[in-house]
Amino acid sequence: MKISKIRKTALLLAAVSCVPLASCGKNSGGKTAQAVDLTDQIQPQQVSGTVTDESFRAAQTAFALNLMQKTVQENQGNVLISPYSVMQALAMAANGANGETLTQMEQALGGIPIEELNKYLLSQRESQPNTNQCKLLNANSIWFRDDKNAIEVKQDFLQTNKNYYGANVYKEPFNQETVNHINRWCSDHTDKMIPKLLNEISGDSVMYLINAVLFDAKWESPYREEPAEYEFQAVDGSTQKAKMMLSDEFTYLSDDHAAGFVKPYADGKYAFAALLPEKGMSVQDYIAGLTPESLQHTLNHPEICSVSTGLPQFSYDFDTEMSDSLKAMGMQQAFTDNADLSRIGTAPDGNLCLGKVLHKTHIAVDTNGTKAAAVTAVEVNSCAAAEDTKHVFLNRPFLYMILDTETNLPVFMGTLTEIPQ
Q: What confidence tens digit (pLDDT) does each residue in 52-95 have?
């Protein structure tokens, strides 16, 4: 069996933002490390985006549904993910990948080559609304340790993520003040909905690539009456009280196993869509049976008619670790010591590989509209070369000896055939 020597060197990609910097500390090399804003030193180059088309929509739907199915399999309670946030974080990481690692990442992200995906995501980001009635905002940044003994970051990697994701760049001492900067950055760019990403920074952490997503929109047709109290049947069969918002909508959704509706947000750029599985079918089973094609067909072929609707008023937080889901989606090599993330940079004691993929979200749906935010953090470790290791697990009767090490003669010899009680 191959066992890797893996240090806890972490490089994180997240969905958050940035704050003014003013801290100092000591790095492992002993020199004074300063917080430095390098943003102005990396000016964006002129690049063009690619307008969303059918192939991009199909790829994004496949990625989103696949990720949701994997997440629901692992979480039985309320689930909330932002495929948009996860996509951007992983796409930024993919700009540092090569070879089979890159191929697997591209396939898991929908099958579009990273050079093309960058262009699609640029156009998507540039087309986001930003009005008082409806806004979808995201910010990207790169934070790295002020110590070349930790990681040598490649200029091309920084430049590409500046060009397509507008990523600002900060060199930091990676002490408690850096933790405070990143957490405040996260809070600022999610309207305080996700106030904290990090508790501490490991002494081996070398970089954070961060993306923050904030959605804040009012209903196109606000609810004019106060919510009424209705019963809601929970997943465990128990009955709960819910404040139900009642309205008449005009877009009906249906497939073989569910019915639903669409309620637009102001400015018409975004809408809330719901699908209720038929009685006797759990939402987990319903999601598991969906395909990207069936979901697209349902959303693309609504029936325009009057729909009497009830929508519970709700608010909750959700967090999950996604590495197992991404492995199941085909992104496997990136999590092993055979990963090739050499376009990010180099580590003195080994190559880089993905570690944990953390995802935090928040949503609030009420009579005024919807507010939601997401943070995605992809940890990258410095992985030493693999070596062959033998394993002996004493889980059945065995012989034992106490040897004279000069002669290798046994001083004691025995067998253990059962554990003494």
A: 999 998 999 999 999 999 998 888 788 989 999 989 999 999 99
Question: How far apart are the C-alpha atoms of 59 and 296, rounded to whole Å?
Answer: 11
- pLDDT score recorded for residue 221: 92
Q: Is the pLDDT of residue 307 over 80?
A: yes
In 334-381, which residue ranges form alpha helices assigned H by DSSP?
Answer: none
In a 13 Å sphere around the CA of 152, the CA atoms on its Cβ side amount to: 8
CB 157 within 8 A of CB 96: yes
Length of the chain: 421
Helix (H) or strand (E) holding 266: none
Show the domains of the chain with their CATH numbers.
Answer: 2-217+316-387 (3.30.497.10), 228-314 (2.30.39.10)
CB 215 within 8 A of CB 202: no
CB 257 within 8 A of CB 277: yes
Beta strands in 313-408 (DSSP E): 314-321, 345-346, 351-365, 369-383, 387-388, 398-404
**Which among 312, 374, 419 is positioned nearest to 17, based on CA atoms?**
374
Cβ atoms of residues 340 and 98 within 8 Å = yes
Gap between the terminal Cα atoms of the chain: 34
Show contacts of 302-305: CB within 8 Å, 24+ apart: 302/251, 302/252, 302/253, 302/262, 303/251, 303/252, 303/253, 303/254, 304/250, 304/251, 304/252, 305/250, 305/252
Tell me if residue 21 falls in helix, strand or coil.
coil
Q: If DSSP codes are grouped into helix, strand and coil, which group holds residue 206?
A: coil
CA angle 43, 45, 46 (to 5 degrees): 140
Helix (H, G, I), strand (E, B) or coil at 334: helix
